[in-house]
Amino acid sequence: MPKSLAIIRIFVFLVVQPIILYLMNSCFTSAGKLRTKICAYFKNLKKASPEINDTSTKTNASVKADSPATISGLMLHLGFNSRKEYDEYEKNGEFRDILKRARLRIEAEYEKKLHYQSSTGAIFALKNLGWNDREENESFNGAVTLSIEIVNSPHNPASAENEVAL
Known about the structure:
The chain is mainly alpha-helical. 52% of the residues lie in helices and 4% in strands. The chain has 6 helices and 2 strands, in the order H-H-E-E-H-H-H-H. Helix 5 (96-113) runs antiparallel to helix 6. It is elongated and about 85 Å long.
């Protein structure tokens, strides 16, 4: 790695990241204000819900469906400029636990959608949020070592199944 690139990385790590975190922390002056803003996001979803015609009944009644909660929508509502900025604040910010809980709330909404008939979109979203569709054993890396010992025997191997005597 060139020396100038290493210097730039150190500068970003020591100078730029702390400034971004300071600016983000100053945007959320208290945990209560951040919680209020997050609650407002979820309340606005219910207000902005489109009406859907319910064709399963003979009356064609309109049903109000909630707009889906999304991580991107939450980021925009809170004033973040990028997903990277949000992830950095969620990782190192002063009120990171509140953001983690908001993310968990959105994951819970996706998880509820798994019980619907068409849940492909929810499965895709949950996988992008780190979910897995099978349990993986961390200690097993897939490599198996077999030890085979060849032993000389006075008997010749059987060439057919009927030559084997038990």
